[in-house]
Amino acid sequence: MTINYLTRGVCSRQITIEISDDGIIESVKFLGGCNGNTQGISALVKGMEVEEAIKRLEGIDCGGRGTSCPDQLANALKQAL
Fold first, then answer.
1. Which of 5, 57, 2, 66 minimizes the C-alpha distance to 31?
2. How far is it, in rounded angstroms, from Cα 51 to Cα 32?
3. Distance between CA 35 and CA 21 in Å, rounded?
4. Measured between alpha carbons, how far is 60 from 9 in angstroms, rounded to an integer?
5. What does the domain layout of the chain look like in residue ranges?
6. CB-based contacts of 39, cutoff 8 Å, min separation 6
7. 32 in Cβ contact with 12 (< 8 Å)
8. What are phi and psi of 69, to 5 degrees?
9. Would you call 71 helix, strand, or coil by DSSP?
10. For each of the chain's 81 residues, which pLDDT tens digit applies?
11. 65 near 9, Cβ under 8 Å?
12. Which of 17, 30, 51, 69 has the smallest set of CB atoms within 10 Å of its CB?
């Protein structure tokens, strides 16, 4: 399954996620945002179960915005469930 999620409140504009039928994250690509950080997030969650990624990323804040690119990824993954 492929998900295209439009982010809110962060520098990245969109997240594209590929999830296998058994709930494993196959790839994550951010459009915009801090390139090094978004590449790092993508590499870290590749191969991870969706539920585990949500638990680890949900609620991370960036500069007092109330959200972050990792938090937005968790939101996108929750929509995929």
1. 5
2. 25
3. 28
4. 13
5. 2-80
6. none
7. yes
8. -60, -45
9. helix
10. 999 999 999 999 999 999 999 999 999 999 999 999 999 999 999 999 999 999 999 999 999 999 999 999 999 999 988
11. yes
12. 51
CA distance 32 to 68: 13
- pTM as predicted: 0.95
Of 52, 51, 39, 42, give the one whose Cα is nearest residue 18: 42
pLDDT at 67: 97
Check residue 28 and give its pLDDT. Answer: 98
Query: Which of these, 4, 61, 62, 58, lies nearest to 30 by C-alpha position?
Result: 4
Running DSSP on this structure, what letter comes out for residue 17? E
> What is the token pair recorded at 68?
């972050």
18, 1 Cβ separation under 8 angstroms: yes
- As a CATH number, domain 2-80 is 3.30.390
**d(C-alpha 25, C-alpha 80), whole Å:** 11
